[in-house]
Design a protein that fits this description.
The structure holds 2 protein chains of 2 kinds. Chain A contains 17 helices and 2 strands. By secondary structure, chain A is mainly alpha-helical. Chain A is globular. Chain B has one domain: Orthogonal Bundle (ABC transporter involved in vitamin B12 uptake, BtuC). Chain B contains 15 helices and no strands. In chain B, helix 3 runs parallel beside helix 8 and helix 5 crosses helix 6. The chains are: A mainly alpha, B mainly alpha. Chains A and B meet through helix 6, helix 13 and helix 17 of A and helix 6, helix 13 and helix 15 of B.
Chain lengths: 418, 372
């Protein structure tokens, strides 16, 4: 029991976003930008930091980030959510249906509700009936895909302009905005072609020009989640349900209710991510349009060590490489980026006296460098696979340092103390 | 004993009834007479052609379910069957189409390559879990996506006969690498021969896989250690079971079986790996494993049920009934069956606890009446 209490303490006392670590990550970020512009200089491309690339990257990041954020609520309350993909599918369908009927903002609301509905099913199965969480999640995915297809073929008859696999176009669209002044200044600066400065400006311009209001809404959810989960009583209770439900229950926390909250919010956010795909990106529902983004969100969340800012970084990597995939000449430069990145990581490992790790990273860095040097282009499929490979690599390197909620995935029944 | 079997059967029956109930509601909601729809499905599915088609559809589902189930036995989740069978089928198709051999050996080589590649692909996840502690669920999901890219890459650049073709494919398998059909079985038993569909010979290998799975899990030391690790990893370790070895071996076996999922279609029908090779069998296999509760026969019934539903859905389409209602049944049945199993398991457990406590009370209540 003592061990349990200490572990509870360790989990709940952690403070994400402490100053020292914030400074560390900021430094890392600037270093990353520097490497990016260096690679760009050597490889002779402009695309890596072009505003267009980063604008697209932002748009591609948001749905993954919303799914990841959904995963965060669920897993922090102690319920593994493999069903994110299914909840996201529900979000795309409901988002498109309401968008077609009432316009884009209704689309967001309905996407949210549709996802929450499947979140509720997952909660009933895993929390009330204590079914294995992965099993239930898999079932949710099958159920969501099937029932959305049924709804499509039932509602989108030929005269609506839709069909069994796609919806009619949604009405209208969500407006965009330029951040006043900043957008123009950075845009002008990025055109100058100055090393590093113009590159950073290009990235900034991409992220401040023609930003959808929905994107802004989604991004605000990151700090809001951090505040809600780490700075409020409600958040403490939710996390305690995921760290040590037995101790939490003995202190009067309504553990089952907190888990319900976690899983339903999880579904709502994943559904919102789905509706983003419809409302901001495609303007239409197409079957299979989520393309595994729910799973990717799950990966991004684990990558980000179950923290809101971490999962933003994780989703960003997916979004960025997705954006680059469409820009052929920049793709080749990614190899050099990987080589230099691994080289730096290897040096860091050497510094930390992890000789074996350093050697492996060094070898891989050399391989990537040789690959970059001896070829002129990269097959598109490799670029598609990059985010998944990166996630696997990061998990391989950092898995032991990830700290998942202590009671994540545990079947918890009221009154069944261990 | 009878009570035990009864409880095991009651869960899937209740779940299936519930799923059909949901489907009835869905059909009523779109203005279709459910009785008419189910009648159409049944009539259509009971012709010999449909029976052959149902078996053909259920074979890959069954193999996929076995692959998943072997991991489930030790609470190891191989979500990556999807990627494993596709990558395996690609390489097996390429090797099979590129070499020349005598008939039985040629088939054997293709099967071995498929199993080997599947095992390797799953083994990556196993190795990562054992050496670096990477969660196998996430690793296999990532490997699925990487696998899809690998397939596109190799099929597009190296393995394709005609790289300009719309539907790229590996070199066609020569007759020596094809498994002949089994339609003669129908005539043997006096039924009409299926028309336009060939009962795929791979069904025999699938049955062997099922028997092998059952024997492995219940009659070998490995199977015992597998189940022990699933029920109580701590106790298994104390008893001398090496958890890392178990994880790695289980992942390899699971992947090896997964590698053979696509073979029934490839060796019996398509005779090549093509760009439009059937997908989604891995995920459906997970559903079948859940439905059949990792039991060799239960999964066979589950696979046949899925095969039946997919085949009979075709007739709904011709009658302007949304055939997707079948997918609702599939989804609901999987979810409600796991809930039903959980509830039944709890009833059984409570009953056992009650029996045990009655027994202990009866024995302690006698001479010394000290306990409060």
């Amino acid at each position: 029991m003592t061990a349990k209490i200490t572990s509870l303490g360790a989990g709940l006392m952690e403070r994400t976003g402490r100053m020292s670590s914030a400074r560390k990550y900021a430094l890392l970020f600037i270093l990353g930008l520097f490497v990016l512009s260096l690679v760009q200089l050597i490889a002779g491309t402009k695309q890596l930091t072009a505003p267009g690339t980063w604008g697209a990257a932002l748009r591609l990041t948001v749905p993954i980030m919303l799914a990841a954020l959904g995963g965060l609520y669920s897993e922090r309350s102690g319920v593994i959510n493999i069903g994110l993909e299914g909840m996201m599918i529900a979000g795309t369908w409901f988002g498109a249906w309401a968008g077609w009927q009432y316009g884009p903002w209704a689309g967001i609301a309905f996407g949210l509700i549709g996802g929450a509905l499947f979140g509720l099913i997952h909660a009933i199965a895993t929390v009330t009936f204590a079914v294995d969480q992965i099993v239930s999640g898999v079932a949710i995915n099958i159920l969501a895909a099937g029932s959305m297809r049924f709804l499509s073929s039932a509602l989108y008859t030929a005269d609506t302009g839709g069909g069994a696999t796609q919806s009619p176009r949604i009405q209208g669209f969500i407006g965009t905005f330029n951040v006043p002044l900043v957008s123009e200044w950075l845009g002008a600066l990025s055109d100058r072609g100055w090393f590093f400065i113009s590159d950073v400006a290009g990235i900034g311009a991409g992220m401040t020009t023609r930003v959808s209001w929905f994107t802004l809404l989604a991004l605000v959810l990151i700090p809001a989640t951090w505040w809600l989960l780490w700075r409020t009583v409600w958040g403490l209770r939710l996390r305690s349900a995921g760290e040590n439900p037995w101790a939490a229950e003995s202190l009067g926390v309504p553990v089952l209710r907190m888990k319900y909250w976690g899983v339903v919010i999880s579904g709502a956010l994943a559904g919102m991510g789905g509706s983003y795909l419809v409302v901001v990106q495609a303007g239409i529902y197409r079957e299979g349009m989520t393309a595994g983004r729910g799973f990717i969100g799950l990966g991004a969340m684990i990558f980000g060590n179950y923290s809101p800012f971490g999962l933003l970084a994780g989703s960003g990597i997916f979004g960025y490489s997705d954006a680059l995939r469409l820009r052929q000449d920049s793709v080749h430069a990614i190899l050099l980026l990987l080589a230099i990145g691994l080289m730096m990581f290897g040096t860091y490992s050497l510094f930390k006296r992890n000789y074996q790790g350093s050697a492996t990273q060094g070898v891989f860095a050399m391989l990537f460098f040789i690959w970059w040097f001896t070829t002129d282009d990269v097959p598109g499929q490799i670029v598609t696979a990059t985010p998944y490979i990166v996630t696997l690599l990061v998990l391989t390197i950092a898995s032991q340092r990830l700290r998942f909620p202590a009671a994540d995935g545990v079947k918890y029944r009221r009154g069944e103390a261990h | 004993m009878i009570k035990k079997i009864g409880l095991a059967i009651v869960a899937p029956v209740v779940a299936f009834t519930f799923a059909v109930g949901v489907a009835v509601l869905a059909l009523l909601a779109v203005g279709v007479n459910p009785i008419e729809a189910f009648g159409l499905m049944w009539d259509f599915a009971s012709t010999p052609t449909s029976v052959a088609s149902i078996i053909n559809r259920s074979v890959p589902l069954y193999v996929a379910a076995v692959a998943v189930a072997i991991g489930f036995q030790m609470k190891l989740f191989n979500i990556g069957v999807e990627g494993q069978y596709l990558v395996a089928a690609l390489f097996a198709g390429w090797v099979g189409g590129s070499i020349v051999l005598w008939a039985p050996f040629h088939v054997l080589v293709v099967v071995l390559v498929a199993a080997g590649v599947g095992a390797l692909w799953a083994g990556v996840a196993g190795l990562l879990k054992v050496t670096r502690g990477v969660n196998e669920v996430v690793a296999t999901i990532m490997l699925n996506f990487i696998g899809f890219s690998v397939i596109g890459f190799f099929l597009g650049n190296f393995f394709s006969v005609d790289s300009g073709a719309l539907n790229q494919s590996t070199p066609p398998l020569p007759p020596s690498a094809q498994i002949p059909g089994l339609n003669w079985i129908f005539t043997l038993f006096g039924f009409a021969e299926p028309r336009g569909t060939e009962l795929q010979g791979f069904v025999i290998i699938a049955i062997l896989i099922g028997i092998g799975y059952h024997l492995l899990v219940w009659k070998t030391r490995f199977g015992f250690e597998l189940r022990a690790s699933g029920m109580n990893p701590g106790a298994a370790r104390m008893a001398g079971v090496n958890p890392k070895k178990m994880i790695l071996y289980t992942m390899l076996i699971s992947g090896g079986i997964a590698g053979m999922v696509g073979l029934s279609t490839m060796l019996g029908k398509l005779h090549a790996f093509t760009q439009d090779f059937p997908r989604g069998l891995g995920f459906a296999g997970i559903a079948v494993a859940l439905l059949g509760r990792n039991n060799a026969i239960g999964m066979a019934l589950g696979a046949l049920l899925f095969g039946f539903m997919e085949r009979s859905a075709l007739i709904l389409d011709l009658n302007d009934i949304p055939k997707e209602v079948v997918q609702i049944i599939q989804g609901v049945v999987v979810l409600s069956v796991v809930i039903a199993y959980e509830v039944v398991a709890r009833i059984v457990k409570n009953r056992e606890i009650k029996t045990a406590s009655d027994a202990t009370q009866a024995s302690t209540a006698g001479p010394q009446e000290v306990t409060a």
